[in-house]
Amino acid sequence: MKVHFQPHCCHRCSIFFGMGVLLCVVFITVNNNFPTAERKLQKRQPANNSEWNWLIPAFTAASPQTTKVVEMCSPENGMQDIPSHIPASHQTFLRYKHCRSFPRLLSPTPCENDLFLLMAIKSTAIQVDRRIALRSTWGKRGYIQGKRVKLLFLVGKSSDRIQEYPLQQLLEWESRQFGDILQWDFHDSFFNLTLKEIHFLNWFSLECKWAQYVFKGDDDVFVHTSNLLEYVKGRDPSDHLFAGDIIPKAAPIRLKKWKYFVPVEMYPGKRYPPYAGGGGYLMSRQTVLSLGVAASSIDLFPIDDVFVGMCMQNINITLTHHSGFKTFGFKKVVSQFDPCIYREMMLVHKLNPTEMWTMWSLLRDPKLKCSINT
Protein backbone atom coordinates (compact mmCIF):
# COMPACT_ATOMS: atom_id res chain seq x y z
CA MET A 1 0.00 0.00 0.00
CA LYS A 2 1.37 3.36 -0.96
CA VAL A 3 1.09 6.27 1.41
CA HIS A 4 0.81 9.70 -0.17
CA PHE A 5 1.88 12.79 1.78
CA GLN A 6 0.48 16.12 0.92
CA PRO A 7 3.29 18.60 0.19
CA HIS A 8 2.00 21.18 2.65
CA CYS A 9 1.87 18.58 5.47
CA CYS A 10 5.47 17.57 4.84
CA HIS A 11 6.53 21.21 4.89
CA ARG A 12 4.72 21.78 8.18
CA CYS A 13 6.36 18.74 9.80
CA SER A 14 9.77 19.91 8.69
CA ILE A 15 9.21 23.27 10.32
CA PHE A 16 8.12 21.69 13.60
CA PHE A 17 11.03 19.24 13.53
CA GLY A 18 13.53 22.01 12.83
CA MET A 19 12.19 24.18 15.65
CA GLY A 20 12.43 21.25 18.03
CA VAL A 21 16.07 20.59 17.11
CA LEU A 22 16.90 24.28 17.50
CA LEU A 23 15.31 24.43 20.97
CA CYS A 24 17.24 21.35 22.08
CA VAL A 25 20.53 22.85 20.89
CA VAL A 26 19.83 26.12 22.72
CA PHE A 27 18.87 24.28 25.90
CA ILE A 28 21.99 22.11 25.86
CA THR A 29 24.26 25.07 25.10
CA VAL A 30 22.83 27.16 27.91
CA ASN A 31 23.13 24.35 30.41
CA ASN A 32 26.69 23.54 29.40
CA ASN A 33 27.85 27.12 29.63
CA PHE A 34 25.82 28.12 32.68
CA PRO A 35 25.25 25.20 35.06
CA THR A 36 22.30 25.50 37.40
CA ALA A 37 24.42 26.22 40.45
CA GLU A 38 26.44 28.83 38.58
CA ARG A 39 23.31 30.66 37.44
CA LYS A 40 22.17 30.88 41.04
CA LEU A 41 25.58 32.12 42.09
CA GLN A 42 25.50 34.92 39.52
CA LYS A 43 22.07 36.08 40.62
CA ARG A 44 23.04 36.12 44.27
CA GLN A 45 26.41 37.75 43.96
CA PRO A 46 26.97 40.35 46.69
CA ALA A 47 27.22 43.96 45.58
CA ASN A 48 30.76 44.17 46.93
CA ASN A 49 33.30 41.83 48.48
CA SER A 50 32.53 43.01 51.99
CA GLU A 51 29.01 41.61 51.97
CA TRP A 52 28.15 38.14 53.19
CA ASN A 53 26.72 35.62 50.78
CA TRP A 54 24.69 32.87 52.40
CA LEU A 55 22.87 31.58 49.33
CA ILE A 56 25.54 29.64 47.43
CA PRO A 57 24.70 26.00 46.65
CA ALA A 58 27.34 23.45 47.53
CA PHE A 59 29.44 21.43 45.10
CA THR A 60 30.89 18.09 46.07
CA ALA A 61 34.61 17.81 45.37
CA ALA A 62 34.32 14.19 44.26
CA SER A 63 31.59 14.96 41.73
CA PRO A 64 31.72 18.62 40.67
CA GLN A 65 28.87 18.15 38.20
CA THR A 66 26.47 17.20 40.98
CA THR A 67 24.66 20.03 42.74
CA LYS A 68 23.70 19.42 46.34
CA VAL A 69 20.75 21.37 47.67
CA VAL A 70 21.63 23.22 50.86
CA GLU A 71 19.14 24.70 53.27
CA MET A 72 19.55 28.44 53.04
CA CYS A 73 20.28 30.47 56.13
CA SER A 74 17.60 33.09 56.74
CA PRO A 75 17.94 36.46 58.47
CA GLU A 76 17.67 36.23 62.22
CA ASN A 77 14.32 37.13 63.74
CA GLY A 78 14.30 40.19 65.94
CA MET A 79 16.99 42.01 63.94
CA GLN A 80 14.63 44.61 62.47
CA ASP A 81 16.13 47.34 64.66
CA ILE A 82 19.48 47.41 62.85
CA PRO A 83 20.44 51.09 62.40
CA SER A 84 20.06 52.23 58.82
CA HIS A 85 23.02 54.60 59.04
CA ILE A 86 25.65 51.86 59.23
CA PRO A 87 27.06 50.43 55.96
CA ALA A 88 25.08 47.77 54.14
CA SER A 89 27.85 45.20 54.66
CA HIS A 90 27.64 45.67 58.44
CA GLN A 91 23.85 45.42 58.35
CA THR A 92 24.11 42.14 56.46
CA PHE A 93 26.65 40.86 58.97
CA LEU A 94 24.28 41.54 61.86
CA ARG A 95 21.35 39.85 60.10
CA TYR A 96 23.27 36.67 59.35
CA LYS A 97 25.89 36.33 62.07
CA HIS A 98 23.94 33.45 63.60
CA CYS A 99 24.79 31.39 60.50
CA ARG A 100 27.85 29.51 61.72
CA SER A 101 27.87 26.14 59.98
CA PHE A 102 28.49 25.58 56.26
CA PRO A 103 29.22 22.45 54.22
CA ARG A 104 32.78 21.55 53.36
CA LEU A 105 33.58 21.49 49.66
CA LEU A 106 37.21 20.36 49.52
CA SER A 107 39.26 18.44 52.07
CA PRO A 108 43.04 18.11 52.40
CA THR A 109 44.98 14.90 52.76
CA PRO A 110 44.73 13.52 56.33
CA CYS A 111 47.04 14.86 59.01
CA GLU A 112 49.90 12.46 59.69
CA ASN A 113 50.23 10.93 63.15
CA ASP A 114 53.69 12.47 63.63
CA LEU A 115 52.68 15.97 62.46
CA PHE A 116 54.62 18.55 64.44
CA LEU A 117 53.74 21.88 62.82
CA LEU A 118 50.60 22.61 60.85
CA MET A 119 50.75 25.84 58.83
CA ALA A 120 47.18 26.99 58.18
CA ILE A 121 47.14 29.85 55.69
CA LYS A 122 44.17 32.05 54.79
CA SER A 123 43.87 32.38 51.02
CA THR A 124 41.37 33.08 48.24
CA ALA A 125 40.94 31.37 44.88
CA ILE A 126 42.47 34.20 42.87
CA GLN A 127 45.75 34.12 44.84
CA VAL A 128 47.06 31.02 43.08
CA ASP A 129 50.49 32.62 42.53
CA ARG A 130 50.90 33.09 46.28
CA ARG A 131 50.01 29.47 46.97
CA ILE A 132 52.53 28.29 44.37
CA ALA A 133 55.21 30.45 45.99
CA LEU A 134 54.51 29.11 49.47
CA ARG A 135 54.48 25.48 48.35
CA SER A 136 57.91 25.85 46.79
CA THR A 137 59.58 27.96 49.53
CA TRP A 138 58.99 28.13 53.27
CA GLY A 139 55.76 26.10 53.19
CA LYS A 140 57.24 23.06 51.46
CA ARG A 141 55.82 19.95 53.08
CA GLY A 142 58.02 17.28 54.55
CA TYR A 143 60.53 17.36 57.39
CA ILE A 144 62.48 20.31 58.78
CA GLN A 145 65.01 19.65 61.52
CA GLY A 146 63.53 16.17 61.77
CA LYS A 147 60.02 17.52 62.40
CA ARG A 148 57.12 16.92 60.03
CA VAL A 149 55.42 20.09 58.75
CA LYS A 150 52.24 20.38 56.71
CA LEU A 151 50.85 23.27 54.66
CA LEU A 152 47.12 23.95 54.49
CA PHE A 153 45.16 26.68 52.67
CA LEU A 154 41.82 27.88 54.05
CA VAL A 155 39.40 29.15 51.40
CA GLY A 156 35.72 29.88 50.84
CA LYS A 157 33.68 30.19 47.64
CA SER A 158 34.99 32.92 45.36
CA SER A 159 33.22 35.16 42.87
CA ASP A 160 36.51 35.88 41.06
CA ARG A 161 36.82 34.83 37.44
CA ILE A 162 39.56 34.47 34.84
CA GLN A 163 38.36 35.19 31.29
CA GLU A 164 34.77 34.65 32.47
CA TYR A 165 35.59 31.24 33.96
CA PRO A 166 34.89 30.69 37.69
CA LEU A 167 37.87 29.53 39.73
CA GLN A 168 36.26 26.60 41.52
CA GLN A 169 37.69 24.19 38.97
CA LEU A 170 41.17 25.59 39.66
CA LEU A 171 40.79 24.93 43.38
CA GLU A 172 39.55 21.41 42.69
CA TRP A 173 42.61 20.75 40.51
CA GLU A 174 44.94 22.13 43.23
CA SER A 175 43.20 19.92 45.76
CA ARG A 176 43.81 16.81 43.65
CA GLN A 177 47.37 17.82 42.84
CA PHE A 178 48.60 18.97 46.26
CA GLY A 179 46.00 17.85 48.81
CA ASP A 180 46.33 21.11 50.76
CA ILE A 181 43.01 22.90 50.14
CA LEU A 182 40.36 23.13 52.87
CA GLN A 183 37.29 24.88 51.46
CA TRP A 184 33.81 25.66 52.78
CA ASP A 185 30.62 26.78 51.07
CA PHE A 186 30.46 30.43 52.14
CA HIS A 187 31.44 33.53 50.20
CA ASP A 188 35.12 34.40 50.59
CA SER A 189 35.15 37.99 51.85
CA PHE A 190 36.78 40.11 54.53
CA PHE A 191 33.86 39.84 56.95
CA ASN A 192 33.73 36.07 56.46
CA LEU A 193 37.28 35.55 57.74
CA THR A 194 35.72 34.90 61.15
CA LEU A 195 33.68 32.10 59.59
CA LYS A 196 36.91 30.73 58.19
CA GLU A 197 38.38 30.85 61.71
CA ILE A 198 35.61 28.89 63.45
CA HIS A 199 35.38 26.31 60.66
CA PHE A 200 39.12 25.71 60.81
CA LEU A 201 39.02 25.31 64.59
CA ASN A 202 36.21 22.78 64.30
CA TRP A 203 38.07 20.86 61.58
CA PHE A 204 41.24 20.81 63.68
CA SER A 205 39.47 19.43 66.76
CA LEU A 206 37.97 16.61 64.69
CA GLU A 207 40.66 15.72 62.16
CA CYS A 208 44.05 17.11 63.15
CA LYS A 209 44.15 17.50 66.93
CA TRP A 210 47.35 15.47 67.23
CA ALA A 211 49.38 18.18 65.46
CA GLN A 212 51.61 19.60 68.18
CA TYR A 213 51.75 23.22 67.00
CA VAL A 214 49.82 25.42 64.58
CA PHE A 215 51.01 28.47 62.72
CA LYS A 216 48.13 30.49 61.34
CA GLY A 217 48.71 33.34 58.90
CA ASP A 218 48.11 35.08 55.60
CA ASP A 219 49.29 33.99 52.16
CA ASP A 220 51.50 37.08 51.70
CA VAL A 221 53.81 36.56 54.67
CA PHE A 222 57.34 35.22 54.56
CA VAL A 223 57.87 32.70 57.35
CA HIS A 224 61.19 31.44 58.63
CA THR A 225 59.91 27.97 59.44
CA SER A 226 63.14 26.83 61.10
CA ASN A 227 62.89 29.69 63.58
CA LEU A 228 59.37 28.66 64.53
CA LEU A 229 60.65 25.16 65.28
CA GLU A 230 63.55 26.54 67.29
CA TYR A 231 61.17 28.67 69.34
CA VAL A 232 59.04 25.72 70.48
CA LYS A 233 61.98 23.40 71.08
CA GLY A 234 61.77 22.01 74.61
CA ARG A 235 58.18 23.17 75.07
CA ASP A 236 55.19 20.93 75.76
CA PRO A 237 52.28 21.20 73.26
CA SER A 238 49.95 20.34 76.15
CA ASP A 239 50.80 23.71 77.69
CA HIS A 240 49.24 26.90 76.44
CA LEU A 241 51.18 28.99 73.93
CA PHE A 242 50.03 31.91 71.83
CA ALA A 243 52.86 33.98 70.37
CA GLY A 244 52.81 36.76 67.81
CA ASP A 245 52.79 40.49 67.27
CA ILE A 246 50.44 41.36 70.12
CA ILE A 247 48.40 44.56 69.95
CA PRO A 248 47.46 45.26 73.58
CA LYS A 249 45.18 48.33 73.55
CA ALA A 250 43.75 48.90 70.10
CA ALA A 251 40.70 51.12 69.84
CA PRO A 252 37.80 50.41 67.45
CA ILE A 253 37.95 52.50 64.27
CA ARG A 254 34.85 54.66 63.96
CA LEU A 255 35.52 56.21 60.53
CA LYS A 256 33.32 54.64 57.85
CA LYS A 257 35.87 55.00 55.07
CA TRP A 258 38.31 52.63 56.81
CA LYS A 259 38.39 48.90 56.09
CA TYR A 260 38.28 48.09 59.82
CA PHE A 261 35.38 50.41 60.64
CA VAL A 262 33.20 49.09 63.48
CA PRO A 263 30.17 51.14 64.60
CA VAL A 264 29.31 51.60 68.26
CA GLU A 265 26.25 49.42 67.73
CA MET A 266 28.51 46.45 67.00
CA TYR A 267 31.13 47.13 69.68
CA PRO A 268 30.40 49.83 72.29
CA GLY A 269 33.68 49.37 74.18
CA LYS A 270 36.55 51.85 73.89
CA ARG A 271 39.28 49.19 73.65
CA TYR A 272 39.57 45.78 72.12
CA PRO A 273 41.02 42.93 74.17
CA PRO A 274 44.67 42.13 73.35
CA TYR A 275 44.99 40.32 70.02
CA ALA A 276 47.66 39.29 67.54
CA GLY A 277 48.22 40.95 64.18
CA GLY A 278 46.59 38.64 61.67
CA GLY A 279 49.66 38.31 59.47
CA GLY A 280 50.60 35.28 61.55
CA TYR A 281 50.85 33.79 65.02
CA LEU A 282 51.93 30.52 66.61
CA MET A 283 49.86 28.32 68.93
CA SER A 284 50.23 25.07 70.80
CA ARG A 285 47.81 22.20 70.30
CA GLN A 286 46.22 22.82 73.69
CA THR A 287 45.62 26.48 72.91
CA VAL A 288 44.03 25.68 69.53
CA LEU A 289 41.66 23.17 71.11
CA SER A 290 40.71 25.58 73.90
CA LEU A 291 40.25 28.37 71.36
CA GLY A 292 37.85 26.19 69.42
CA VAL A 293 35.69 25.61 72.50
CA ALA A 294 35.60 29.32 73.31
CA ALA A 295 34.83 30.33 69.70
CA SER A 296 31.77 28.07 69.61
CA SER A 297 30.04 30.14 72.31
CA ILE A 298 31.04 33.70 71.38
CA ASP A 299 29.11 35.88 68.94
CA LEU A 300 30.85 36.35 65.62
CA PHE A 301 32.69 39.63 65.10
CA PRO A 302 33.54 41.04 61.66
CA ILE A 303 37.29 41.38 62.33
CA ASP A 304 38.75 37.90 62.75
CA ASP A 305 41.93 38.99 64.60
CA VAL A 306 39.85 40.77 67.24
CA PHE A 307 37.45 37.82 67.44
CA VAL A 308 40.36 35.52 68.31
CA GLY A 309 41.43 38.04 70.98
CA MET A 310 37.92 37.95 72.44
CA CYS A 311 38.06 34.17 72.60
CA MET A 312 41.49 34.21 74.25
CA GLN A 313 40.24 36.69 76.84
CA ASN A 314 37.27 34.43 77.52
CA ILE A 315 39.53 31.48 78.40
CA ASN A 316 42.07 33.69 80.17
CA ILE A 317 45.13 32.71 78.13
CA THR A 318 48.09 35.10 78.12
CA LEU A 319 49.28 36.28 74.72
CA THR A 320 53.06 36.40 74.28
CA HIS A 321 54.53 39.24 72.26
CA HIS A 322 57.52 38.29 70.10
CA SER A 323 59.46 40.94 68.20
CA GLY A 324 60.25 38.45 65.42
CA PHE A 325 56.65 38.58 64.17
CA LYS A 326 56.68 41.56 61.82
CA THR A 327 53.02 41.59 60.84
CA PHE A 328 53.23 45.29 59.95
CA GLY A 329 56.59 45.10 58.20
CA PHE A 330 59.80 46.78 59.35
CA LYS A 331 60.28 50.14 60.98
CA LYS A 332 63.46 52.21 61.20
CA VAL A 333 65.78 49.86 59.35
CA VAL A 334 68.27 50.69 56.61
CA SER A 335 67.09 47.97 54.24
CA GLN A 336 63.71 46.28 54.45
CA PHE A 337 64.79 43.47 52.14
CA ASP A 338 67.95 42.18 53.80
CA PRO A 339 68.42 38.41 54.21
CA CYS A 340 70.62 39.03 57.26
CA ILE A 341 67.61 40.61 58.95
CA TYR A 342 65.10 38.07 57.68
CA ARG A 343 67.11 35.13 58.97
CA GLU A 344 66.43 36.29 62.55
CA MET A 345 62.69 36.79 62.03
CA MET A 346 59.69 34.54 62.56
CA LEU A 347 57.71 36.18 59.76
CA VAL A 348 57.55 39.33 57.69
CA HIS A 349 54.40 40.81 56.16
CA LYS A 350 53.83 41.65 53.21
CA LEU A 351 55.76 40.08 50.31
CA ASN A 352 54.63 39.35 46.79
CA PRO A 353 55.46 35.95 45.20
CA THR A 354 58.58 37.23 43.42
CA GLU A 355 59.91 38.73 46.65
CA MET A 356 59.09 35.47 48.41
CA TRP A 357 61.17 33.38 46.00
CA THR A 358 63.99 35.93 46.00
CA MET A 359 64.28 36.07 49.79
CA TRP A 360 64.08 32.28 49.98
CA SER A 361 66.99 31.92 47.57
CA LEU A 362 69.03 34.55 49.39
CA LEU A 363 68.58 32.85 52.75
CA ARG A 364 69.62 29.50 51.29
CA ASP A 365 72.75 30.91 49.67
CA PRO A 366 75.77 29.16 51.28
CA LYS A 367 77.84 32.27 50.56
CA LEU A 368 75.61 34.52 52.68
CA LYS A 369 77.64 36.32 55.31
CA CYS A 370 76.16 38.55 57.97
CA SER A 371 77.82 40.62 60.66
CA ILE A 372 77.34 39.66 64.31
CA ASN A 373 75.35 42.86 64.95
CA THR A 374 72.81 42.14 62.19
How would you characterize the overall build of this protein?
The protein has 374 residues and is α/β, with parallel strands linked by helices. It has a domain at 104-363: Spore Coat Polysaccharide Biosynthesis Protein SpsA, Chain A. It has eleven helices and 16 strands. The strands form four sheets. Strands 3, 4, 5, 6, 9, 10, 12, 13 and 14 form a nine-stranded mixed β-sheet that branches. It has a three-stranded mixed β-sheet with strand order 11-16-15, with no helix packed on it. Strands 1-2 form a two-stranded antiparallel ribbon. The radius of gyration is 25 Å and the shape is globular. Mean pLDDT is 82; it is low at 1-71.
